[in-house]
Design goal:
about 220 residues, 7-stranded parallel sheet, alpha/beta, globular, Alpha/beta knot, 7 helices, binds S-adenosylmethionine
Length: about 220
């Protein structure tokens, strides 16, 4: 017999429960992705890790302009395991369009790469990702990586240390690793401080985890 679909009150309850754990003003940007599976994986990671939004630089116009239309795109919905239903995704025609939009809204950007790029480059574990109140984290394309233009317009480049023979991690995988660290730091910050620059410290920090459901079998 088919399992009953999650009832609406259950979905609403979960939506309320996760709200305080969302990282405010944190956006993941994917630049020129070519594989829909990677787009789906990034959306899934963003949703699972409590990141606010996904922006996609999509000069080939492979995605629809409207989020509602994107939610109905089967390939994206399937590869994101429906996370696209719950995560806001916006597309841009070019890297500069996306930077212009982010900068107008007061966002600072950091890029990610397995290589040393730009003026400032750090390893993931060295970073303080709470420094900017509005932050966009950029991931490059599968074949070409992050563009020189994105490096030029960003604050710094972040690398996940690697110890193998291969040149890079997969786009979806690296987004999970980087966003986990960035979101964890920002959630901890939000739990302790109400305002920027470590002001408005709460007497009792808010919780930073939701206990997973206990499974009996
Ligand atoms: C498959 S990689 C791109 C490989 C490409 N040949 C290059 O030179 O960057 C796709 C994206 O995943 C991210 N990525 C992969 N490995 C990474 C690492 N070790 N550290 C940080 N980001 C990484 C970057 O955003 C990269 O642009």
């Amino acid at each position: 017999m088919e399992e009953p679909a999650a009832s609406k009150p259950t979905v609403r309850k979960r939506a309320e429960e996760i709200k305080p754990f969302q990282c405010k003003h944190l956006i993941a940007v994917i630049e020129n992705p070519t594989d829909v599976k990677n787009i789906g994986t990034v959306i899934r990671n963003v949703n699972a890790l409590g990141v606010e939004k996904v922006y996609v630089v999509d000069p080939r116009r492979s995605l629809p302009d409207d989020w509602q239309d994107l939610r109905e795109r089967k390939s994206v919905s399937k590869t994101s395991v429906s996370a696209v239903k719950w995560t806001f995704v916006k597309r841009f025609d070019s890297t500069d369009d996306c930077f212009d939009h982010l900068e107008r809204k007061g966002f600072k950007s950091i890029v990610t790469s397995p290589h040393v790029k730009g003026k400032r480059c750090i390893f993931l574990h060295e970073g303080d990702f709470t420094e900017h109140s509005k932050l966009a984290v950029w991931f490059g394309s599968e074949a070409l990586g992050i563009s020189d233009r994105a490096v030029e317009r960003s604050e710094m480049c972040v690398s996940i240390p690697m110890f193998g023979m291969i040149e890079s991690l997969n786009l979806g995988t690296s987004s999970g690793i980087v966003l986990y660290e960035v979101a964890k730091q920002r959630r901890e910050y939000q739990s302790r401080f109400r305002l920027r620059k470590r002001r408005g410290e709460r007497k009792t920090p808010l919780p930073t985890v939701i206990m997973p459901n206990h499974q009996t079998s």
